[in-house]
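User: C-alpha coordinates for this one?
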Amino acid sequence: LLERRQADAVLVERLLGELATLHEEKLKNPKAAAQALRRLLDVQPLVANARAMVALHLRHQDWPAALQSLLEGRGLATTQTERASLQLEIAQLHEQQLSDSEAAVADYLHALEFEPADQRGAIGSSARRGLEQLDGAMSRAAPLLADAVRDGLLPLIDGAMTTVGDAVRRVVVQRKDPRRGRRRDRRREATL
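Assistant:
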Protein backbone atom coordinates (compact mmCIF):
# COMPACT_ATOMS: atom_id res chain seq x y z
CA LEU A 1 0.00 0.00 0.00
CA LEU A 2 2.84 2.39 0.86
CA GLU A 3 4.62 1.57 -2.40
CA ARG A 4 1.40 2.22 -4.31
CA ARG A 5 0.98 5.67 -2.71
CA GLN A 6 4.58 6.57 -3.47
CA ALA A 7 4.13 5.47 -7.08
CA ASP A 8 0.92 7.53 -7.33
CA ALA A 9 2.69 10.60 -5.91
CA VAL A 10 5.50 10.25 -8.45
CA LEU A 11 2.96 9.86 -11.26
CA VAL A 12 0.98 12.93 -10.16
CA GLU A 13 4.20 14.94 -9.91
CA ARG A 14 5.30 13.88 -13.38
CA LEU A 15 1.87 14.57 -14.93
CA LEU A 16 1.60 18.03 -13.39
CA GLY A 17 5.11 18.86 -14.58
CA GLU A 18 4.25 17.71 -18.10
CA LEU A 19 0.98 19.66 -17.99
CA ALA A 20 2.88 22.82 -17.05
CA THR A 21 5.30 22.26 -19.92
CA LEU A 22 2.43 21.66 -22.35
CA HIS A 23 0.66 24.87 -21.30
CA GLU A 24 3.78 26.97 -21.51
CA GLU A 25 5.49 25.63 -24.61
CA LYS A 26 2.71 24.30 -26.85
CA LEU A 27 -0.32 26.35 -25.82
CA LYS A 28 1.64 29.51 -24.95
CA ASN A 29 -0.36 29.94 -21.77
CA PRO A 30 1.99 30.79 -18.86
CA LYS A 31 -0.93 31.37 -16.46
CA ALA A 32 -2.20 27.83 -16.96
CA ALA A 33 1.37 26.56 -16.61
CA ALA A 34 1.68 28.46 -13.32
CA GLN A 35 -1.60 26.89 -12.13
CA ALA A 36 -0.27 23.42 -12.91
CA LEU A 37 2.95 24.19 -11.04
CA ARG A 38 0.91 25.59 -8.14
CA ARG A 39 -0.98 22.30 -7.91
CA LEU A 40 2.33 20.47 -8.06
CA LEU A 41 3.67 22.60 -5.22
CA ASP A 42 0.52 21.93 -3.20
CA VAL A 43 0.90 18.17 -3.73
CA GLN A 44 4.69 18.11 -3.30
CA PRO A 45 5.83 21.14 -1.26
CA LEU A 46 9.50 20.97 -2.23
CA VAL A 47 12.07 23.67 -2.92
CA ALA A 48 12.67 22.15 -6.37
CA ASN A 49 9.00 22.67 -7.27
CA ALA A 50 9.10 26.26 -5.99
CA ARG A 51 12.21 26.82 -8.11
CA ALA A 52 10.31 25.48 -11.15
CA MET A 53 7.68 28.16 -10.52
CA VAL A 54 10.39 30.79 -10.14
CA ALA A 55 11.94 29.74 -13.45
CA LEU A 56 8.57 29.98 -15.20
CA HIS A 57 7.90 33.46 -13.84
CA LEU A 58 11.41 34.64 -14.70
CA ARG A 59 11.08 33.38 -18.28
CA HIS A 60 7.91 35.44 -18.64
CA GLN A 61 9.30 38.43 -16.72
CA ASP A 62 6.62 38.26 -14.05
CA TRP A 63 8.87 39.67 -11.33
CA PRO A 64 6.33 39.92 -8.48
CA ALA A 65 5.23 36.30 -8.99
CA ALA A 66 8.88 35.20 -9.17
CA LEU A 67 9.53 37.03 -5.89
CA GLN A 68 6.55 35.33 -4.27
CA SER A 69 7.73 31.90 -5.44
CA LEU A 70 11.25 32.58 -4.12
CA LEU A 71 9.79 33.52 -0.73
CA GLU A 72 7.74 30.34 -0.74
CA GLY A 73 10.79 28.31 -1.65
CA ARG A 74 12.77 29.93 1.16
CA GLY A 75 10.01 28.89 3.55
CA LEU A 76 10.30 25.30 2.34
CA ALA A 77 14.09 25.19 2.56
CA THR A 78 15.42 22.67 5.06
CA THR A 79 18.98 23.99 5.49
CA GLN A 80 20.40 27.38 6.34
CA THR A 81 22.59 27.27 3.22
CA GLU A 82 19.54 26.68 1.03
CA ARG A 83 17.68 29.53 2.76
CA ALA A 84 20.67 31.83 2.33
CA SER A 85 20.93 30.93 -1.36
CA LEU A 86 17.24 31.67 -1.96
CA GLN A 87 17.54 34.90 0.03
CA LEU A 88 20.43 35.92 -2.21
CA GLU A 89 18.23 35.32 -5.26
CA ILE A 90 15.51 37.45 -3.64
CA ALA A 91 18.02 40.27 -3.15
CA GLN A 92 19.20 40.03 -6.74
CA LEU A 93 15.61 40.12 -8.00
CA HIS A 94 14.90 43.22 -5.92
CA GLU A 95 18.08 44.86 -7.18
CA GLN A 96 18.08 43.93 -10.85
CA GLN A 97 14.48 43.46 -11.95
CA LEU A 98 12.42 45.41 -9.42
CA SER A 99 14.94 48.28 -9.00
CA ASP A 100 14.25 48.40 -5.26
CA SER A 101 17.64 49.22 -3.76
CA GLU A 102 16.40 49.51 -0.20
CA ALA A 103 14.79 46.07 -0.25
CA ALA A 104 17.88 44.64 -1.97
CA VAL A 105 20.14 45.98 0.78
CA ALA A 106 17.89 44.46 3.44
CA ASP A 107 17.76 41.17 1.55
CA TYR A 108 21.54 40.95 1.10
CA LEU A 109 22.00 41.60 4.81
CA HIS A 110 19.35 38.99 5.59
CA ALA A 111 21.21 36.46 3.41
CA LEU A 112 24.30 37.05 5.56
CA GLU A 113 22.20 36.47 8.68
CA PHE A 114 20.96 33.13 7.36
CA GLU A 115 24.49 31.89 6.85
CA PRO A 116 26.95 33.88 8.99
CA ALA A 117 29.44 30.99 8.95
CA ASP A 118 29.61 31.34 5.15
CA GLN A 119 30.42 35.04 5.06
CA ARG A 120 33.79 34.17 3.54
CA GLY A 121 32.22 31.61 1.19
CA ALA A 122 30.15 31.86 -1.97
CA ILE A 123 26.96 33.22 -0.42
CA GLY A 124 28.76 35.77 1.72
CA SER A 125 30.92 36.87 -1.21
CA SER A 126 27.88 37.30 -3.45
CA ALA A 127 26.00 39.21 -0.76
CA ARG A 128 28.96 41.52 -0.11
CA ARG A 129 29.41 42.04 -3.87
CA GLY A 130 25.73 42.96 -4.14
CA LEU A 131 26.05 45.37 -1.23
CA GLU A 132 29.10 46.97 -2.84
CA GLN A 133 27.14 47.44 -6.07
CA LEU A 134 24.43 49.14 -4.06
CA ASP A 135 26.92 51.45 -2.41
CA GLY A 136 24.97 54.51 -3.49
CA ALA A 137 21.79 53.14 -1.95
CA MET A 138 23.68 52.26 1.22
CA SER A 139 25.06 55.79 1.48
CA ARG A 140 21.48 57.05 1.27
CA ALA A 141 20.40 54.46 3.85
CA ALA A 142 23.18 55.36 6.31
CA PRO A 143 21.45 58.51 7.61
CA LEU A 144 18.23 56.54 8.00
CA LEU A 145 20.03 53.92 10.09
CA ALA A 146 21.70 56.65 12.16
CA ASP A 147 18.29 58.25 12.78
CA ALA A 148 16.88 54.86 13.76
CA VAL A 149 19.70 54.35 16.29
CA ARG A 150 19.15 57.85 17.67
CA ASP A 151 15.39 57.28 17.95
CA GLY A 152 15.95 53.99 19.80
CA LEU A 153 14.48 51.82 17.04
CA LEU A 154 17.62 49.69 16.84
CA PRO A 155 18.94 47.63 19.73
CA LEU A 156 22.63 48.19 20.39
CA ILE A 157 25.08 45.85 22.09
CA ASP A 158 28.54 47.27 22.74
CA GLY A 159 27.81 50.00 20.20
CA ALA A 160 26.84 47.58 17.41
CA MET A 161 23.43 46.58 16.08
CA THR A 162 22.32 43.11 17.14
CA THR A 163 21.02 42.19 13.70
CA VAL A 164 21.38 44.53 10.79
CA GLY A 165 18.55 42.91 8.85
CA ASP A 166 16.12 43.65 11.70
CA ALA A 167 17.47 47.20 11.78
CA VAL A 168 16.84 47.82 8.12
CA ARG A 169 13.35 46.32 8.31
CA ARG A 170 12.36 48.69 11.11
CA VAL A 171 13.65 51.93 9.66
CA VAL A 172 10.93 54.51 9.10
CA VAL A 173 11.41 56.12 5.71
CA GLN A 174 10.03 59.59 5.11
CA ARG A 175 9.06 60.26 1.54
CA LYS A 176 7.50 63.21 -0.10
CA ASP A 177 4.07 62.52 -1.54
CA PRO A 178 4.20 64.16 -4.99
CA ARG A 179 0.40 64.18 -5.34
CA ARG A 180 -0.26 66.19 -2.22
CA GLY A 181 3.01 68.06 -1.87
CA ARG A 182 3.42 67.10 1.78
CA ARG A 183 5.59 64.74 3.71
CA ARG A 184 4.28 61.53 5.11
CA ASP A 185 5.80 58.70 7.10
CA ARG A 186 5.73 55.23 5.70
CA ARG A 187 6.93 52.15 7.46
CA ARG A 188 8.84 50.10 4.92
CA GLU A 189 8.75 46.43 5.88
CA ALA A 190 11.12 44.44 3.70
CA THR A 191 9.68 41.18 2.47
CA LEU A 192 11.92 38.71 4.22
